[in-house]
Amino acid sequence: MKQMQSFETIYEAAVDIKGGIDTLEAILPIPRTKKELNKLSDDFCLSNMSRRIFQAGLNRKIIDNKWPAFEEVFHQFDINAVRMMSDDALQKLMDEKRIVRHWGKIQSVRYNAQTIYEFNEEEGGFINYLAEWPSDNIVEFWDVLKKRFKQLGGASGPYFLRRIKKDTFFLTQDVIRAMARWGAIDEEPKNKKQKRHVQDCMNVWQKESQRPYCQLSMILACSID
After folding, report:
1. Nearest to 131 by CA among 46, 39, 12, 199
2. Could you tell me if residue 19 is left (phi over 0), alpha (psi between -120 and 50 degrees) or otherwise beta?
3. What percentage of the chain carries pLDDT values higher than 70?
4. CA distance 191 to 88
5. What tens digit of pLDDT does each residue of 98-135 get?
6. Do residues 129 and 123 lie in contact, with contact meaning Cβ atoms separated by under 8 Å?
């Protein structure tokens, strides 16, 4: 493996490709603070979680256009209303032409509502649990989402976090190629050990740059042609 480059080098490459500092800085995401995350509601999280789940594998605009109907049939994603939906009520949604009728994803909404409820009963609240989780160990939170919830494995967990602006990096193909280009990895990270290594590299760059992790991965993606 090549020596890992400084983040200053990566940033300069991204600035050059994007045509200037102002252009690059204008596209960088800004995460919510811990205080701002704690003000979120369970229904907001369930809605965004479900939206990501239904978008996976589909054109995002299809789900965006249909989302008002999703909000209606799932009771505005009120977790108590959703977790109490009967099997018959879920089955009827397979005949609801205004939404995407995918049985596994439809079932996941009720399951995930119940999981949020259980977090609220056992962990001091899902919102607080999410807000307090340190981003310098965010890959472990991806694993929590995968294990505790339905349909949040792979990229869906990080994309859900990005939707609600919890600070996280992404492992898109561009980010993976950039990390290889700048000497951080020599193969695509797939298992927990490899993702832990990616986290360690991101932590080094975060300490150097003092930037949130969501910006690190965006700058990485912009640093290669």
Report:
1. 39
2. left
3. 99
4. 38
5. 999 999 999 999 999 999 999 999 878 999 999 999 99
6. yes
d(CA 33, CA 148): 24
Cα separation, 71 vs 99, whole angstroms: 10
Q: What is the pTM of this model?
A: 0.94
Answer whether 189's CB lies under 8 Å from 222's CB.
no
Place of tokens 């899902």: 126
| Residue 149, phi then psi, degrees to nearest 5 | -115, 165
> SS in 3 state form for the chain?
CCCCCCHHHHHHHHHHHHCCHHHHHHCCCCCCCHHHHCCCCHHHHHHHHHHHHHHCCCCHHHHHHHHHHHHHHCHHHCHHHHHCCCHHHHHHHHHCCCCCCCHHHHHHHHHHHHHHHHHHHHCCCHHHHHHHCCHHHHHHHHHHHHHHCCCCCCCHHHHHHHHCCCCCCCCCHHHHHHHHHCCCCCCCCCCHHHHHHHHHHHHHHHHHHCCCHHHHHHHHHHCCC
Domains of the chain: 7-31+169-222 (no CATH), 35-163 (1.10.340.30)
Residue whose token pair is 């869906």: 156
